Every structure is written in structure tokens, then in C-alpha cells.
## 1
Amino acid sequence: MKRIVVALGGNAIQAGDNSAAAQEKQVEKTIKVVAKMIEKGDQVAIVHGNGPQVGNLLLQQYKGSSKDNSAMPLDTVVAMTQGSIGYWMQKALDDQFKHTDYPHQAVALITQIIVDANDPAFKNSTKPIGPFYTFNEMQKQKIYHPEYSYKQDAGRGYRQVVSSPKPVKIINAPVIDTLLKSKFVPIAAGGGGIPVVIKDNNLQGVAGVIDKDFSAAKLAEDIQADELVILTTVDNAYVNYNQPDQAPIGKVKVDQLKKYLEAGQFAAGSIKPKIEAVINFVEKTGNTAIITSLRNASKLDDGVGTIVYN
């Protein structure tokens, strides 16, 4: 039996439209694949992204804001998406398990993560959230939302960007450890977790969205996971991506992967955070990390994906 932290991107939840029904149906498809990992007998904790969802919810909050019913701050919006996506995943897992002899129950946990109040990320917005825009659409959005920042996202269009501090400590890690030992499936650090700082000996939420891959790596480290699995839209990470000599990265030592990273092989805002996250986990624990597609989740023992080892 292995202890595994699985990270799912926000796009594993996002559907063709932004309705709750469409996203919930997409979650059901995703969870059917992840459930196969759990049914093998491994302890699995699930971390999910929320980039599309938190951006859309921010827009809803802004449009519905009034003097008597003001928009919620970003840390609370992160918590709101943790709750909604966690609910969809918990229900989908429980529905899946009732059709098997597997005795596990899912638990969606609102997770707070301590970040450094002096993290330079607070002065440089880089984390893309919400929908993609063309250049002209982005210019219109800037008129409606002059306080928002937008950047090109991996050649796919423009998206709003927010601060993305690094996780320092996952407050709820002991609870997640206990849940795994008790045969529960925790859905934790959703959307990268709610970023908080310690001020006057109290926790205080801050505006930002932690990258879920960094939070997944930190959680995997804190609960002593045997493996970190990041499920995304591609089967492998690649060198020379979208070039004539593009090549998939299979089994690779962490030192070699760092050389690729330093050579600028990985696009910021796309695969780069995943690469940095697996490097952090493998270097700090000596254990293995895998980057691959959701469709490969049931074939991890067959050596699929980009496998990073010490």
C-alpha cells in the first residue's frame, strides 16, 4: 500500500459551459478515473485546482456587488470554490464507492495554508485565473475592471492574473494524516488552499491564489507521501514543446529535470509550476513524482508519464 497525493487541475473540473450541472458532470468523469487508484488499496489524498472557477466567481461577485451586498475578498472566494468543488468531488466519490465493496468515505476539508507576508509574489501577479480572452476582449475587461491585471497565458489567450505566494505550512496536515490512517479519502488544499498569514498571533486571510501543484507537493511532503502524482492534459512533460524536435520526457532523474528547467524548457503558467513542484517534492523526500494525463491515472504502475526520481 502506498500513500499518494493526487493533484487535479481546475480544467479537470471545467466543462464546456460554466454551469454547476456541467462542471459536476465533468467531476463525475474525473472521479471515476481517480477512484480506480483508490480501489487498489492505496491511501489517496486529492488536491484540486480552481483557476477557472475562482476567476469566474470573482466576476460574479464583482457584477453583483452593491453598497449593501459587497463582493467577497479573494481569500473567501478561494474558500467558496474549495467548498463547491469539494462538494462535487465528495459526492462523486461516495456515489462511486457505494457501487463497490470498498469501505472508504470521502471528506472535503477546508484547508488553510500559511504563506509568508513578505513573499515577493504579492508584488508581482502571475497566477492565471478565470476565462481566456482575445486581445480585444481583454482590453474591454480592463475598462470594466481597471484594478485587475491580465497576461498572455501560454499562447492560448489572455487571463486575469493574481498574486501566487508559495505555501509555507499546511495547517491542516495532521488532520489529513489522521483521515488517511482512518481509511477516509481527504479532498484537501483545494484551489491550492486558502492563503493566510499570522498577524498578532491570529490567522488572517490574504489576497492570492496558491498554485495547487506547489500545495500538493507541500502536502505530500508534510504527510510523508510515497508518491506525488500530478494529472494534467498531456501524457508527458516535453522538451522542445511544439517544436519539430519535440520529445516526451519519460523516466528522468531530478538533477536532469532541473537542467531542463534552467534551460527554459518549460512555459510559465503552464507546465513550469508542475515541474518545480515535483522537483521540490523529490529533492526533499527522495520519493517519486509523476506528471501525466488523467487518462493514464489507472496505468501508473505501467511506467507511464514523466517519472521523476532522486
## 2
Amino acid sequence: MIYLQLSTGQAPAECQYFARFALRQMLREAEAAGLDVEILSETPSKHGLRSAVVAVSGSLQDNFAQRWLGTLQWVCASPFRPNHARKNWFVAVSRLPDFPALPEEGEVRFETCRAGGKGGQHVNKTESAVRAVHTATGISVRVESERSQHANKKRALELLAVKLAAQHAEQMGRHAADAHAQLYQLERGNAVRVFRGKTFAE
């Protein structure tokens, strides 16, 4: 299992617009390669996407990750500001730890509730769904995909660990950008993949 994070940081609307395309393209390519792919978290914005964490697994997961890790570049006139001079927009893709550290149960508050959706009377009678809240940060996840409360609780801890790892990576990225602004600008120009125009041709 590989965890990939897409992030635009504090970038403008154009980068967020590009990030939404990048996520969709990532999902399409993963499925075409026969990989299992799941969006673990995403932070949408008015214009697209600020960040997302995707889990990818399969025999070709490492080759797939190498195609995406680094800086993605989109060369196009702004779809939001027609007279804007800038035509280069960037999204960062980084790899999170393979096995994010699980938070201690004392750091997490669990809430149980009835699972929603289809499933007949059994779904409505049992409180198998679990919401886990990391008390220090307020980050939360809700899981109802498993049949038992115990299994949902375990899965919730795993997802919470990934979210915490993603937040930490994003904070470290912002710190590095602030501390090494010139280096950051240089890295943005060294894209691993370049897309062009309104159709995102590569």
C-alpha cells in the first residue's frame, strides 16, 4: 500500500483547478493499471481541490507512484483571470509514510452511531458505525464500511493515522517553502509531468 498526497498549499485558484484534474487522472491511470485505489481524504475548494490523500495498492504500485511523485505543471492561460500574465500552475505530489503511526486510543474519542445507507433492517438496529476524533487536532473520520463496530473502530484508527500524517507533511512543506523560498521556486520549475492547455494534453 502506498499513500500519495496531492497538495496546492496556499496556491491560487488555478492550481486548485489543476489539482482536481490531477486527482481524476491519477484515479484513471491507477484503475487502467489494474491497481486498487481509494481516496482517503480530500479538501475541496470553490475552484477545485486544495489537497487529497490517495491509497494505491497492487503489483505495479511503485512504478505508478514514480510517475506522479514530485511537481506537476499545467501550462495554460488562467480560466479565471483572462488577462493574467502567469501561465504556469503547479501541484505537489508527495509520498506519505507506508505505515503511519496509529494514534494512541487515549488521544482519540470514539462515538458510535447507526450506519446509514442500504442494508435493510440490520443496518438500522445496530450502532456499528464509528466516528473517531483526534482530540488534540479535532481531525475526525467516520467509518461504516465494515459489519462490526470493532472492525470499523480499527479502520477508523488507520484512516485517522493517514490524515494526521498528511497534515504533518503539509505543515512541513509549508515550513520548507517559507524557509527556502528560492529553492522552492526552483523545485516548482522541475516538473515530473507537464500538462498543457484546456484539455490538459500531456
## 3
Amino acid sequence: MHRSHRLRKNEEFQTVFQKGKSAANKQFVIYTLENQGQATFRIGISASKKIGNAVTRNKVKRLLKEAIAAIEDRISPHLDIIVIVRPGVEEMPLASMQGSLMHALKRAKAVKAVDIHNEKRG
């Protein structure tokens, strides 16, 4: 995932939290906010201390960034997205994490509509 695809500042996170819409599944909570002023999506990741110590949280965030990079062509542009990691994700393998993330993004309507129809056919 490229640096330009990341939310970094607290103000950016707070804007998405306050003005955005949320959707969730068992592993992730997704907040989305449409932002027409940008060419690509931006994602911020939040993992609380409930996930584990700093090493565990950073490992989960690295794996999550890898999962996002694998599906970034399916994510709708012009969105600011925050992914909140729920406890239990730290034990998931990458493939399961990616599937669960894709499910949560679909629930949040952050995936391009064309890809949703193609996945149902295949």
C-alpha cells in the first residue's frame, strides 16, 4: 500500500469518525467518508491495546496493509476509510484476514459495484 493511500493525522481520523458511516463484521469496524477532492482512496488503521502488545499490534497492521494492497484495485476511489481491528484478528492467517476485510468493505459499500457482481457470477 503506497504512502499516498494512508490517513495519518488525528484530524483526518476525527473527520471520518464524526461525518462518516460505519459498518462492521466480527473482525473489523469500517468507517467511510466520501471525499471527491482526491483521486484515490485513503485508509487509516487503528488497533487498540486489546489486540495485544505493540509487537502484536504492529504485526496485525502490517498484515492488514498487505491484505489491503492485494485488493486495492477493488476499493472505490474518492473514499477515506478507517479500519478498526477487533480482538481475535491477531490469530488469523493472512488469507482469512483478507476475506474478512473484503466482507467488511462490502458491508460498508466501499467496494466497486462492478466487482461485487463479478464475484457472484464466478
## 4
Amino acid sequence: MDASTTAPPAIDMEKLQAFSMRTITDIAAGYVGVMVSLGTKLGLYKALAGAGPLSAKEVAGRAGCAERYVREWLNAQAAAGYLGYHPVSDTYELSPEQAMVLADEDSPAYIPHAWNVPASMWFDEPKALEAFRTGRGVAWGEHHERMACGIAAFYRNGYKASLVPQWLPALQGVVGQLEAGIDVADIGCGHGHSTLLMAQAFPHSRFHGFDTHAASIVEARRLADEAGVSHQVRFDLARATDYPDKRYGLICFFDVLHDLGDPVAAARHAASVLAPGGTVMLVEPFANDRVEDNAGTVGQLYYTGSTLICCAHAISEGGKMVLGAQAGPARLADVFRKAGFSHFRQAAATPFNLIFEARR
């Protein structure tokens, strides 16, 4: 049969309807993100948190906003399941669990700042289109400012919940070294949240944060002053392959190795500046080794971020090995093997991160 006369494939209407509804669900999630951002910046969640059932007028009064807008916002949030609605009393309520996610800025589950990331992706769409068509990279500093702020704030609480109490103790002998006093390098430190958490927990150690993004270094220095640890912490501009040798007892890569244009060179430099008996802690996004095993919500988030942020930055640095955010344990182990490390093991895992320990 001539190919031009081949009948088109039959459409399964149930599958069509199901997939169409899936796309509508994703669009609705985008709408919800705008509502979350507004609710955070206007103080609407804080007005609701711990207050019990409130009318729209009461919420508006507490937040200093116009009642009609607030009522529609509340209805949108109730429809999305982001708060509860009591029809008899016509009141709205934020449960303790919802408050942890939406109102408590110190909660490890706090999420609103993460919505800055897709906002930045939309702002940066012209750059992404050009990158796809030309193959050029997009460096971290070329993104809209909401990208750096969103990612730093999003990771801060997760690190606060896990880094000192869980991840560092999972590394052999590292906590004892930190308590005695060693030099620590935080590579790709961003706003320095991870660096400051370690500095506050281990006052006898000295911490050095390095990043290529000047605005992030400025913010990290400000936060160090605010936290009262400037005497113990230093932040400087440097690449992952040329920061100074301090004979570090611990070198940390927090969700950054996969962003680098030459991760093997970065691991090799780390090996060259480690003190005898020193450790590299590698924290990477959770991933399995095979694409088919990364299907699901977490994989969807990470592959999307990888496309527009991680791979784009690695390519901007020359892209000798563009790992992407879903590299998986086998590829990461291979990076450190090629860099001359003889010891590499997975020390811990969460639904969002893998934590590895490497030694020469």
C-alpha cells in the first residue's frame, strides 16, 4: 500500500480524554503557583496560620488587603486543596500541615520560594529557544534574578533539616574532624546557606565558600555577617577547578557537580587540594541510573530543571561532560574513578537527594 494512502492510527478516546485532563492538571498547577506567590508576598498564609476558621473579611483585615480579591483567592486555594473551606460558616482554615508547607518559613517542607524557579524559566524562554537552536549554553548568571533567589531559598530549609543532623554523620569520621577543627570548602556555594549551617554547628572549623556568580557571593557575605560567623567563614569568586589549596579536610559539592562543564576536572582538583585523610561529600539530585526508572513527579521536576538550568550551564562552561541533574550513581562513581579517587560510596539518600562519600 502506498504510504500516502495509509490510514491514520485510530484514536482511543478514553486515552485522549485522560491525557488531556493530565495536561489541564499541569496547567492548573501553574495557576496555583501564581496564587501561592501572591499569598506569600501578601501575608495571606500567615494571616490564616494557627488562627482557626476565618471569614474572607477577617483574612483580608489581618493581611491588610481588599476583601473581594482575598475572597476569590481563598476560593481558588480551597478548590486546589491548599486550604479548607467550611460552607456552613463560610470560613476558611489552614491546617497545621498546610501551614508547615505554606506559612512556616523555617519548616523543611516550606515550598513557596520554589515557585520562583518556573517563573524564571518563563522569563528566560527566549534564551532557551536560542540555546536549543544554536547549541550554545546559558550560564547561571544569565538567568532572571528569581532563579538564584528561588533555588537558594528552596534548598536552604532542606539542608537545614538534613545536613548537620543526618548527612554529615553518615560520613565516616567527618563529624569528629569538624569538631576538632579543619578547613572546609563549599564548591558552588550560592548564597552560602550550606556553608553557614556547618559553620554554626562546628565553631572550631574554618569554612570557605566558592562560586562563580558574583551576586550570590555578595549575598552570602551579607548572610554571614547577619549570622555572626564572618570571623569563621570566607566567600570568594572561584571556579570548581581553581580555588586555592588549603589542605581541606572536607570538600562539599551541594547539588552542583552536575552543573559543571568538566566534572572530572572539578573532582580531580578536589583530590589535589584535599588534606591526607580528607573527604569529599557529594550531594546530588536523587536519580536512578536508567531513564525508565526516573519516571514520576521528582524525575519530571529534575529533568525539566536539568534541561533549562543544569545542562545549559554545563554547556556554557565548555560541556566536556554534561551530566544533567539525573546523572545517577553509576555515572557519578565513574567521574570520581576517572579523577583518581579509590573510595566512593553512597552514604545516605532522601526522596530528593543522594549523598556520597569519596576519598583518594
